[in-house]
């Protein structure tokens, strides 16, 4: 029973920290605000996480877990490169538009250049690299326009994916921009 409560508390702390880190970045995030919002003491927080850095690392790890799960689901579907790109970019846009843990991990990775475990690149760079691979494959298959250089096209897809991270952007900004982009770059218009 105590362990279950501890797990629930840890999850609540991570969710609250994700909101705070997403909104304010690492340096602007306040532990006081986090514990106050869920009605606990700082001492209780330190029972779960020894420091702000440790809490940020846990949020970053959660973002990477979400991304790896997304890649696993995509890999199991054995789609053509253009379809895989569209699904992956759509999911990444959705995550960056509305998933606080993913948004916070993106911001933390950019703010403090944090990495976890064997991750040698930031989370955003990990997303960019996979999108770039799929763009190249889809262009080679003739499913995407070849009128635009692969690096430029990848950059456009990534910019659309992360449109929801812009301050004041609507909650579906990435998905809306991505849909417009598909109409411009796909050979079939689909």
Question: In summary, what is this structure?
Answer:
The chain is about 75% helix and about 0% strand.
Characterize the structure shown.
The mean pLDDT is 86. The protein has nine helices and no strands. It has a domain at 58-185: Orthogonal Bundle (Tetracycline Repressor, domain 2). By secondary structure, it is mostly helical. 35% of the residues are buried. 74% of the residues lie in helices and 0% in strands. The chain has helices spanning 2-28, 31-38, 42-48, 52-75, 81-98, 100-112, 123-140, 150-161, 173-185. α1 (2-28) packs across α4 (52-75), α5 packs across α6 (100-112) and α8 runs antiparallel to α9 (173-185).
Radius of gyration: 18 Å
Distance between the termini: 52 Å
Report the CATH C-level class of the domain at 58-185: Mainly Alpha
Q: Kindly report the average pLDDT value.
A: 86
The beta-strand count equals: 0
What are the secondary-structure elements, in order, as H or E?
A: HHHHHHHHH
The global form is elongated
Could you say what the CATH architecture of the domain at 58-185 is? Orthogonal Bundle
How much of the sequence is in beta strands? under 5%
Task: Report the total helices.
Answer: 9
Uncertain residue ranges: none
Structural class: mainly alpha
For the report, how would you describe the main beta sheet? none
CATH fold name of the domain at 58-185, please? Tetracycline Repressor, domain 2
Helix amount:
over 70%
């Amino acid at each position: 029973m105590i362990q279950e409560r501890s797990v629930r508390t840890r999850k609540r702390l991570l969710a609250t920290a994700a909101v705070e880190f997403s909104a304010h970045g690492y340096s602007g995030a306040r532990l006081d605000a986090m514990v106050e919002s869920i009605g606990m003491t700082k001492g209780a927080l330190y029972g779960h996480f020894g420091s702000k850095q440790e809490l940020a690392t846990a949020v970053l790890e959660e973002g990477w877990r979400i991304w790896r799960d997304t890649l696993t689901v995509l890999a199991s579907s054995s789609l053509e490169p253009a379809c895989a790109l569209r699904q992956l970019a759509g999911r990444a846009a959705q995550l960056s538009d509305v998933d606080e843990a993913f948004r916070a991990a993106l911001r933390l990775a950019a703010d403090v250049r944090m990495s976890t475990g064997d991750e040698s690149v930031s989370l955003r760079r990990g997303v960019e690299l996979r999108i770039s691979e799929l763009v190249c494959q889809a262009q080679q298959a003739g499913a995407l326009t070849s009128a635009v250089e692969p690096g430029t096209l990848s950059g456009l897809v990534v910019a659309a994916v992360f449109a929801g991270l812009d301050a004041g952007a609507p909650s579906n900004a990435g998905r809306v921009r991505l849909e417009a982009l598909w109409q411009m770059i796909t050979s079939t218009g689909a």
